[in-house]
Design a protein that fits this description.
The complex is a heterodimer of chains A (260) and B (74).
Chain A (H helix, E strand, L loop, with lengths): L2 E6 L7 H14 L4 E5 L7 H5 L9 H5 L5 H4 E4 L2 E7 L11 H12 L4 E5 L6 H8 L3 E6 L3 H14 L6 E9 L1 H6 L5 H8 L3 E6 L2 H8 L9 H15 L13 H10 L1
Helix pairs in contact in A: 1-11, 5-6
Chain B lengths: L1 H32 L3 E3 L5 E6 L5 E6 L2 E4 L7
Antiparallel strand pairs in B: 1-4, 2-3
The chains are: A alpha/beta (260), B alpha+beta (74).
Chain lengths: 260, 74
Amino acid sequence: MGRCIVVTSGKGGVGKSTITATLGMAIAGAGAKVVLVDADVGLNNLDLVLGIEDGVIYDVSDVEKGRCRLTEALVTHPFQENLSLLSSRALVSGKITERGFAAVIAALRRGFDYILIDCPAGIDEGFHRAVSAADEALVVTTPIPASVRDADKVSDLLAGYRLRRVEVIVNRIRGDLVMKGEALGVSDVRNVLRLPVVGSVPEDDEVLLSQTVGRIANEDSRQYRAVLLIASHVMMGTNTLYDCTAKYRGILGFFRKMAR
Amino acid sequence: MGLERIKKVLLKDKTGAREDVSAVLKSDAYDLLDNYFEVEPHSLSASVEVDEFGYYEVKIAARAYRVRGFGRSG
């Protein structure tokens, strides 16, 4: 039976869908069968992040309502056969019940090792629907105070569910600003949220460049290397964080900091 | 500076939430304690405070007339 992990944040725009897609790609690259479920009904973007928007015909609501079989709604990634997507098309999905969504997830557990749910932003019905079907949660935040505050609120809500693990990923870290003491670092976020931080991902222009041309990630990028460490934590329980400040240390780092 | 600011904000958020929690807690605590003691209803107090690190400090106090008997028959 597959493990179901919800990727949530509270605040929008923190890179939740990007983390979900990249993490899925990293886990699938390690040989596990992964399905990404876009639970952001009406504002779905996971298909676009994965670069397979043209392949989506049916979605999660079609499966729930019995309009198609689960296998018909799944889109396999053209370059990574271990990675599939169950989408929720904008403005077409209609009302999906918590029970129906849970049934779809239960069916996916039989065919996949990992189910990653891309949770909608906010703490409304969609959030609860996504979380109630999961075993574990990854809370994505950025070092921006508004994002950390929302992550804290989400963490309080997650405490009301029987989740095996609630862990944090700090995304879009500006190593140069952390080094200058002008932005929150990983230890600051850990200190404030009092939850284990299992991922630190640097701000990286490669994310924008990759998504513009429909690629999940550039495998040589700092962002992808950071996500590989998160994948290793998810699959094997390792606890190594990517050092987002390393680039800005030493003589070369000094000039890089100055250049930004 | 940023760290202190966010800590302050979260503390304020948590302090605001504690009023709702203590009302529900008081009612639940009474139901629980009533299984073991004959609790004087008006004596029960439940307070939730937030310390400087953001941890909740929960205090429940009650006065009871007597301990309920256990394991006796008849």
